User: Fold these one by one.
Assistant:
Number 1:
Amino acid sequence: MTAIKKEHSAGGVILENGCLLLIMMRNLKGDKVWTFPKGHIEPGETPEAAAVREVAEETGWDCVITGPLFTANYSFMRGDTPVEKDVLWFLMRREGGDGVPKTPEEIVDMKWCSLEEADGILAYASDLEILDLLKKLP
């Protein structure tokens, strides 16, 4: 039996004037999906530092965290290996940068969209849970 691999990631949700920044990536099957920027927490790195770093790498925007948002937990198979993953999500605000992804091989596209438009294109259950939380913000 294959041992379960545990993975820890962090990501950021940039919300400005009622619009979200989404990125398009390829999932494990190679399909294009709209989602929020996130990535693995490196050894010795805090979830907050990982979220800021990943957002900068994937979107080209330097951001600051304005608060914790959501923790997603899910499982999936990577080949024959079962993976249990948690993702700590943070709400962010842009402070600088050029909007040019530093990992263009990972990012297919990027766009700002309204919460309503995001509702129609986000596919992951955890992303839709985040969207529901955002809709309830003052």
Note: The CA atoms of residues 4 and 82 lie 5 Å apart.
Number 2:
Amino acid sequence: MHNSRIITNDFDFFQPTSMTELYELLADTSVETKLMAGGTDLIPQMKEGRKAPKRVISTMKIEELACITVQDGILKIGAAAKLKKVAAACSGLPTINALHQGVSSVGKLQILNMATIAGNICTASPAADTVPGLLTLGSSVTLKSVNGEREVALRDFLAGPGKTTIQANEVLYCINVPLPSENTGSEFKKMERVGADIAKINISVVVQRNGNTCESCKVAVGSCGPTTLLIDKVDDILGGQEISGPESELIQKAAQLVADTITPIDDIRSTAEYRRKVAAVIFMDVFQIAWVRAKGDAA
């Protein structure tokens, strides 16, 4: 019953209140298990028959997973922190404006009140709105299990559409976002069919500048490849270069590189041709706003 609006398969539901309880549950890898935070992705998929786990484990009763803190210049976002809370935390940190915009664009208020940033990452959708900002900020994830913990760069964590490198007995504990220096500006833009829709294309740019010199430029593009693409070669063009204007030859060269690097497809939301055409334009718009912000000016 793929069109059903009720969950038709039987499953066991657990709601641990501590990490110890969670580790004990995850230690049993013999049963197909799905971790659930807000459930805004998993529950619809179960209703549609696309996923049918035998166990569902909710993390929402584990208080430490909902914490958001700043430690040693790193914003640490607990895996169960709701998107609305994450957006509020980011709003007071102007250098990570791209992340604030990405988080805020995931959906309407109902979704922001339920969904989590960890859920948006672990779904591993190439169109995830939080991922471009996280990638351009050099973020990592902390994975924990009964055997210990490990930290993995986000770009290495995302392995393909719907795939990550998390192990069956692990849980994503928190997301680690290094806070950039004050001479940093960032911006995010999303193209969509209607409000709160999945992105046709989304782009994040993080720029560090010294006067008119671009010290570094990080670019990530979503919905244009098997994962969100972090395009390192843009920094090879712009890093260490003087920027004479928003449409200078260097900026146009970088924009063309973005358009040439992405690997979009035709799907129900857009065409590959459209995505390639707008990628360069969006990059130039987003770069200009990030560039102005890096100087400390409002944009």
Note: The CA atoms of residues 95 and 180 lie 6 Å apart.
Number 3:
Amino acid sequence: MLREDIEFKTSFTVSQKPYRAKLDQNESPYDLPEDIKTYLLERVKEAAWNRYPQPLTYSKVKERFAGEIGVEPERVALTFGGDQTILSAFLIAGGPGRRAVVFEPTYPMFRHYAIATGTEAEVVVLGEDYTPSPEHFVGKGFHLITFVSPNNPTGNLIDTAIVRAALETGALVFVDEAYYPFARVSVWEELRDYPNLMVGRSLSKSMLAGMRMGYVLSSPEVINAVEHMLFAPYNLTHTHLVLFNEFGVIKPHLNRGADTVIYERERIRRVLAELSLNPFPSYANFVMFKTERHRELYEFLTDSGVRIRDVSGLPGLSNHLRVTVGTPEENDLFLEAVRSWVR
């Protein structure tokens, strides 16, 4: 009955232990203010819940959202979370008989969607530096080349020159920029004239994880293909469309939250460096670090009520941990627990 080419295992899980600081899922530590949420809920109530979202509504919402992010509406597709941007790339450029390259360690959904779509994926393990080279894809005949910038969990950016070299191969080049709000630099700014560039972004990391919102930036041809495969707007709910439509109301709060996260991210890095825990530079809302006693530290933190992510099971990261940047108070709890463990 089930596909024989897939090993069906337990789905993605996180710790369910009690916590004082939840720093394990790269979420924003801040929620929208109550008055803003009340305003948005009133807008959702105005929709007819017994009716499907309509294409005309989608077009108008997309035009308004595109204006807020400064791009043309024909270059944007709205998605159900950032994961759907990744799936879209495999739907339009992958499939049986087609080849993609995935660089790891990275977000597991790339390998997952390759399997789900029957795409032949060549996995290149780069280790903790996550630095692809043209030799990994030039002349290899890939239909889809994928990058993550900033990468999860390493936190580093991809050199624009590497992305340009990938674009010159003629493959669809997908760049996951889910953490763009914390990096504030994008390959889109320099390479948007390439019709085969596809950038996926998420609003989950900056404050809307529970709402599952993402979007694609690309050429009109690619956007049309994405919306066709997703049957837009039926991939979205009225709630999605309201939130996209009111993004101008939401955006200032996301930006302020991201400002605080960026400041706290650098504070965490400084302290971890002082404690000789080898933090890596990060342009995202997390910091990866490493210690030979990583499992001992992870369990100590968990027992202290501080949940972080053990990423040592990812390729090339045998003794690495990742901490999401929380509120200053949560970060204090994390850092004090780490100091205690070091002592």
Note: The chain has two domains: 21-31+251-342, 49-250.
Number 4:
Amino acid sequence: MTSIYARVMPKFYVNVLFEEVPEDSFFIGGEPRNDFVRITMDHIARAFPSKEGSKRFFDAVNELITPWVKDRGFDWEFHIDETPFDLWSIQGFYPAREGTQDEKR
């Protein structure tokens, strides 16, 4: 996943977190599921520039996760939330803007 994001931003902006959910704690439509993977992504450092860009990203992610999810018989979905860049800080500092020298360091 990091390599997909690294095409457009520094790797240190990418955080991946795996949260295991007990088998008896996941339901869809009121029915228990133990064959489902839910992926959420928060975009803050970048936003999609176009619908074509978001489609390319979704296609790349679906291709990446296929061996780990689809090929193992799991159903899945993912979604992305985009937080405005101006509503973000890291340890009290505002991150450098895209493409600036500060961001490249």
Note: The first strand starts at residue 27 and ends at 28.
